[in-house]
Amino acid sequence: MQDQQLSFLKTLLETGSPSGYEADIQKKIHAHVETFADQIDRDWHGNLAATVNPEGNPRIMLAGHCDQIGLLVKHIEPEGFLRTMTIGGWDMQMLLGQKVQVWTANGPIPGVIARKAIHLLSKDERGKIPEIHDLWIDIGAKDKADAETRIELGDPVTLNLGYQELLNGLACAPGMDDKVGVWVVMSALERVKAGTAQAAVIGVSTVQEEIGLRGATTASYSADAKLGIAVDVTHATDTPDVSQSQHGDVKIGGGPVIVRGPNTNSKVFERLTSIAKAANIPYQVNALPKAASNDAAALQLSRGGQATAVVAIPNRYMHSPVEVISLQDLEHAAELIAQFCLSLTPDCDFTP
Ligand SMILES: [Zn+2]
To answer: How far apart are CA 214 and CA 110, in angstroms?
Structure first.
């Protein structure tokens, strides 16, 4: 991955963006895409749409969601500890003992997610998975008044953000879901700009996916596109104890996953796979017999119905502090989607 592209990925991963609190990350995405997009639109919901060739035909929307799961400050205890609620789907065991950042009006402040030490837990408590109300965040405040000088109710919280490379081109960070999707969408758009597109290509950094595909719902109405591709993470099944017979055979580094099933238009699927074969872009197929649990579900039902596809990035340990992806899979996904967009002509027909 080129330095400038890697630095954009790191910027995304180092900016806190729990659902509903995406303003900072959208500003950074705006600064990146204005170097190549023909048009940039922001809506009052929070979505950012960057378009190449706005007068083109057909119109295609690419969606990657910029929000991440997080916590929200709900209550401050008299002793200064913060009680929170969850934003999005957490495995509570992942939260225990984590360092966090509370994103305040005056910047992030550090804290730790705590509970009693093991020696002080009763036998019952030791065997039980804690719920969010059993945990607290300690920011080091002396008491409630001290905490209130820094924290407001409704301040969002993320795990300590940061990017780390592993061996063989793998990398890990909280929030790979779905900042890698934003990266792929905007990288595909930049590649489209470098080519000659007949289609109008609208790359959208959507908001609030983790709480119900809400940004894709509003953004797809505005984009008014006939085709839509959602880029999100999917479970790599190449780790111990994950059943491939139940979840499919998905390898990290094996290329983007093109999902087959009712949420992917059959002709879009055929075109994506034949482009990948012709261009020697590795890809994997996984089957999904229902609406995807990502932006593709909203795209497909937008207006009169979009011809949609899910292009997914293999991800180990989703919704954890150590979400792992392969940088090569990102590049391959961006190239595949760019070539798909460049192949579209005004007379193409995706009626299944
Ligand atoms: Zn996601």
So the answer is: 29
